[in-house]
From TrEMBL:
NCBIfam families: ccoG_rdxA_fixG (TIGR02745). GO terms for cellular component: plasma membrane. The keyword Membrane applies. Residues 1-22 are annotated as: Disordered. GO terms for molecular function: 4 iron, 4 sulfur cluster binding; metal ion binding. PANTHER family: FERREDOXIN-TYPE PROTEIN NAPH. The keyword 4Fe-4S applies. This is Type cbb3 cytochrome oxidase biogenesis protein CcoG, involved in Cu oxidation. Pfam families: Fer4_18, FixG_C.
Amino acid sequence: MSRLISVTQIEPTSPGSESKQKIQPRSFTGFYRRLRITGGSVLFTLYFGVVWLNWEGRQAVLWDLSEKKFHIFSATFWPEDLVLLSGILLICAFGLFFLTVWAGRVWCGYACPQSVWTWVFLWAEKVTEGDRGRRLKMDAAPNTLNKIVRRAAKHGLWVLVSLVTAVTFVGYFSPIRSLVTELISFDASGWAVFWILFFTAATYLNAGWLREKVCFHMCPYGRFQSSVVDSDSVVVSYDSARGEPRGSRKKDASQVPAHLGDCIDCQLCVQVCPTGIDIRDGLQMECIGCAACIDACDSIMDKMGYQRGLVRYASERELKGGTSRLLRPRLIGYFAFLVLMIGLFSWGVVSRPLVTLDVERDRGMFRFTNDGKVENSYLLKLTNKDSQPRYLLIGVKGRDDISITGSRGVALGAGEKAEVPLAVAYPPSASTAGAKELVFEVSTLNGAGEMVTETSTFIGPSNN
């Protein structure tokens, strides 16, 4: 009987079938493990390295909460630019959907922080307590000095990795160099210490203790996977037509019963799985697509002299003897939306004004000047969001019959703000009854003619 489960009907493992024992994955080698280590190393280098880069006299990537600025190398984003954050989230969402339709949960297996940090914690566990067999024996053994020392060393490494992770994360919101200096000298603020301890505990618990439970019960990705993948999605699969019926046998091919498939039922694919599932039962919600079972199975196939690929990346259609279709409406649709969102986001970043203007009219109604003019007072709030200083020229659009009292120009450094008070007066000959629309404009002397405008009102006396 075929054991293939349709990838379009992924079901979670029932609570009663979950192993109550701690999952102890077995170490292994293989192509996908090397690929995962390479990818994880790149991500670790970026995460721990970028925070130390400087750019134009400041930290290259910094979400400065005190100044309400987000610096990414030469670009600076302000609170009013946070609408672009929704664009980033949409890009990530459609990118994830596209990736899942194409190749299942490869994000989970290769790039998800939960998975990457869990692999690091598993490495620390192996270094201190040994491989899977030794760890299982140690779990069942009574407490001894050797066991206590090894467990203490393991938790010490876990805490160290968690602490460095937390300090680095907080360093993206508070300049990392001053933060580390203040921590060493015990001068760090209470909030900095709180968040460092919070993220240290979160990393320690998630990667050290919860591990696969985060994927099972806290992450929604596995649950909506069934509504995204289709019969052409390339996912980690067991070729039941080739492997069944499974059974143990000697390495000598002449001794293999004719009715057996290629699966020798060694359980190695289960032992290396970080979520403890059996891929031979079909694609399951708990599978994170890490391909550990592929490496394990390929190593056994090599030893037995069988062809690799009993467990491999394959689609349901391919396992049934067909050919996977790369171009299909769902995949094309997600790709089109992804390209569209990237284009809109890029346009939004490039076209966003680097000078902002906000006009506040004085709450007073109006007043008469000595020469009989009607005058209103305004406060212009200017922001230079550029990384270069700018000289701004202030004027009123389309009005030659008014006079302006106050500074008509202001120099702003990179990232600076200024408040400029202005008084606008109409001549007695002009009709000043009621409210008039007044459009302020600010142009840059050294900004290639860039101009921003803001509309306000001018209040005059009533004709009654």
